[in-house]
Amino acid sequence: MPRLSHTAIKPVRAAKPQGAAKRQGAAKPQGAAKRQGATKPQRASKPQHAPKPQFAARSVGAAILRSARALRAARVCFGHGTTDARDEAAELVFYVAGLAHDLGSAAYSLPLTQRQATRIEALLQRRIQERIPLPYLTHRAFFAGLELYVDERVLVPRSPIAELVLQRFAPWMRGRVRRIIDIGTGSGAIALACARAFPRARVDAVDISVAALQVCGRNVRRLGWEKRVSVLRSDYFSAVGDRRYDIIVSNPPYVGRAEMRTLPPEYRHEPTLGLASGDDGLDAVRAIFAAARTHLTDEGILVVEVGNTEAALLRAFPRLPFIWPRIAMGGGGVFVLKARDLDAEMGT
Description:
Elements: H1 60-74, H2 85-97, H3 114-130, H4 134-138, E1 141-143, E2 146-148, H5 161-166, E3 179-183, H6 189-197, E4 202-207, H7 210-223, E5 229-233, E6 245-250, H8 257-260, H9 283-295, E7 296-305, H10 310-316, E8 334-338, H11 339-346
Parallel strand pairs: 3-4, 3-6, 4-5, 6-7
Antiparallel strand pairs: 1-2, 7-8
Helix pairs in contact: 1-2, 1-3, 2-3, 9-11
């Protein structure tokens, strides 16, 4: 079962307003995959975006409380940007009310209109009855400080790679970064986060899915980064010629055949192409390994999320010196390899 690593909404303490957005990438199922990822249900943790219990009947805070209770009672699966009922309820209510998460608890006493209350209830019922991940209902997801458009043509962005991007892949990446490729880009979340973190770099956002690239292109245009981010239809490296990259990054499909059959209903709304990766979940990783060294600069790095197929990966490639970064916001299943470390395995 996929393991969720992050939440899409930053914790907001009841005492003081805090910043909103996400996991910066809540992670994909960690047993799941991507052309972005799936994620496993998590037990509700300590409330993070929790309203206080005294609010007017039609206030933001009261709506969050009611929605959270309904989500818990329905036993929906979290993992598409949030890890518990209160965070998900807060995102739903703030979205409908047109509020920034930066307001945090300061917004809980604000009144809602009848129209807003009705809209919250309608979306809540769809979330519960149809088991649709909330980002597909709101058409928004937060990743590494970016707000992105999403729909059912792409996986909901949630990769723990977001944290590594925000750290500019330190300490493994040194020197100037000129070119980056994001394989299986989906919504473009990782590619765009890299473009933001490395403003002087050119980024190739590639995917085999034409439908996914339409979403990616929309996000690129929305940010106005068409000159630096190229959206390419490519089966792994097939469309990039002999280009070499300082960073190859990917949150590929990594859900094995048996696990695909056990995913919660929410994951059935995501494109199978972004999740399923053969019997053991490693088909996509093998394809990346087959050509990664050819397309890496000598000082380059390969960064890939494999979720809970980590053990299978270690069995399949016992000679590779994988580095497994500690993800402070939670989660894991992301490895880093230096270009020279691929030489022995790839026979170069």
